[in-house]
Amino acid sequence: MPEKKVFVGDVRFFSVLDESGAVDSKLEPAFSSDELKKLFEWMIQIRAFDDKCVKLQRSGKLGTYLSVLGQEAQVAAALAMEKNDWLVPYFRDNGLILARGAKFEELLAVGGGSEWGSQFSGPNILPVAIPVATQLLHAVGIAWGMKISKEKNAVLVSFGDGATSEGDFHEAMNFAGVFQLPVVFFCQNNQWAISVPRKNQTASETIAQKALGYGFSGVQVDGNDPLAVFVAVSEALKKARQGKGPTLIEMITYRMSDHSTADDASKYRSLQETRAWEKKDPIDRFRKYLKAKKIWTQAWEDRVGQTIRTRIEESMRKAELIPNHPSTDIVDFVFLESTMELLRQREFLEEAGRREKRDDAK
Amino acid sequence: MTLMNMIQALNAGLFGAMQADDSVLVLGEDVGLNGGVFRVTEGLQKKFGPDRVIDTPLAESAIVGASIGLAIKGFRPVAEIQFSGFAYSAFEQLVSHAARIRNRSRGKFSCPLVVRSPCSGGVRALEHHSESMEALFCHVPGLKVVMPSTPSDAKGLLASAIIDPDPVLFFEPLKLYRLKKEEVSEDHYEIPIGKARLVRPGKHVTVVSYGSMVPECEKAALALSEKGIETEVLDLRSLSPLDFAAVQESVKHTNRLAIVHEAPYSFGVGAEIAARIAERNVLELDAPVVRIAGLDAPMPLSKLEEAYLPNANRIAFEIEKLMNF
């Protein structure tokens, strides 16, 4: 029996704008100038909000914060989604979550330590999953439900490069492939999982190629090119809605910030590397493209920037106006109907509250 | 009424639930074509089709994780973990998500999920096939843990688990699967989760148990009765939430308490009950609380299984000691 080739794989890299912002007109999506402006606005909006959140954390007004600096092109993925699609985010997705319709004050509430913030405005957004890669399985289940009920919708689930080492990533990819589920695996490969570089996360050449092992296609996109992200995600979602199964998108980008406000990236990565990526900044690149198309002016960006800053300030006031939640919230959402023991513990909380008030009055 | 063993009762319960509600799905390893390795899901796929009775790839975390997504999307998945000793790879999904999604989203999303899994020993199975690790799950806020000990309880508790708005772990003692048959109603009925069953009334001592140990407690009670000791036997049926009121009620008139479980002695359901009695009812006791349990050692293979498991003799012996305190 002679040897024969039994599998041939193919993974492509896709971009629309090069690093200087020059466009490949054959691949350019048909956006109106208003749509292009909107995309740009979302990107500068998340950068401004992100910057504000880091400052609020430094001044003690927010808990640990995870910046999306450098990954702003993620907003394009949200804009590619339809209303009845579902977004299953990870913890570095504030851009995606906002562009899907959540409000600044909701994210500020989450960051400020309130579960209520996770009731995001905007259609079908799950709260952020912190344990890495666990949310991929929830996306698979939601997509499975869509398939069973013959809905023509899809799920976008987002995660980082580190997540691809977790077992749940592989189990989710496997289930999605076996059952041909309408789910798009959106991997934001930002090169670092806290201090571990991408090359120590997997020996494979690309993350995208892992899809081939599960029987569906994977594609690599320039993740600092919002047009490429939009096109790739739109196509994958469309394919999913048509019942043609899942796709893995590897969005090549870079985490310009520390892992979190509790981290110091200078301990483990070089300044040269960060500087090299600065030159590929997604906002600068997109601005050059808009300028060449004569859509962008400095005056327009200044105006938009001012509006954004005002909105962020307003949202901070709104967030500050939210009254403190009663301590009984801790036990009231464990089950729909509290158990006897939880009711007993609820009384304990109420009594502790009354005692505190009495002590304050003294 | 029909004479059924626990497997048949569970099967009938699943049939009824799937018939009553299109959103009920059954998924797991070998549950479809094969009808489950213990035949609990026999005939379901034939009746309801492969979209509702799904043979999944062999991956416990995915079975539970995907079920969480299905539940969030509005389905009522009944997932099977083939043996509870294999549930640990799904532990993170249960603890970090199934148990928390309602709380995390302040009620916007919920997880009405049932995970069924055979548990406990006594059938000379392979390693990991005889585990009684229910206390691990009882400790998790947001999970309910149920374990029936009779065919009719199994059917009624499963009905309640499936309509429950929150995640329920449903442990089935595999030793009891075919141990006895009893008359079970063909009609739909629910046994509420969180209500213990009085198995046998008695005035001298209370024995609280659940799952595989309930029949052993009954046998012990019978033997003790011949010696003039009237044992009140309570079957918890649900471990979390716990029907502690029923335990208190019983202890108030017997003034003596023993707790019997197959699970390891330390940090278990017995410890919880003993601690609560110590906190709230200690003055009503005429003797210290006794735990009759498995050992703090890995479940042995079949040659030593009998030495590990509590049985009617050991239970009767310990209770006599308790009476003579």
TrEMBL record, chain A:
One of its GO terms (molecular function) is oxidoreductase activity, acting on the aldehyde or oxo group of donors, disulfide as acceptor. Pfam families: E1_dh. CDD domains: TPP_E1_PDC_ADC_BCADC (cd02000). SUPFAM superfamilies: Thiamin diphosphate-binding fold (THDP-binding). The keyword Oxidoreductase applies. GO terms for biological process: branched-chain amino acid catabolic process; sulfur compound biosynthetic process. Keywords: Oxidoreductase, Pyruvate. This is Pyruvate dehydrogenase (Acetyl-transferring) E1 component subunit alpha. It comes from Candidatus Iainarchaeum sp. The lineage of its organism: Archaea, Candidatus Iainarchaeota, Candidatus Iainarchaeia, Candidatus Iainarchaeales, Candidatus Iainarchaeaceae.
TrEMBL record, chain B:
The lineage of its organism: Archaea, Candidatus Iainarchaeota, Candidatus Iainarchaeia, Candidatus Iainarchaeales, Candidatus Iainarchaeaceae. SMART domains: Transket_pyr. GO terms for molecular function: oxidoreductase activity. This is Alpha-ketoacid dehydrogenase subunit beta. Residues 4-179 form the Transketolase-like pyrimidine-binding domain. GO terms for biological process: organic acid metabolic process; sulfur compound biosynthetic process. It comes from the Archaea. Coiled coil: none annotated. Its cofactor is thiamine diphosphate. Keywords: Oxidoreductase, Thiamine pyrophosphate.
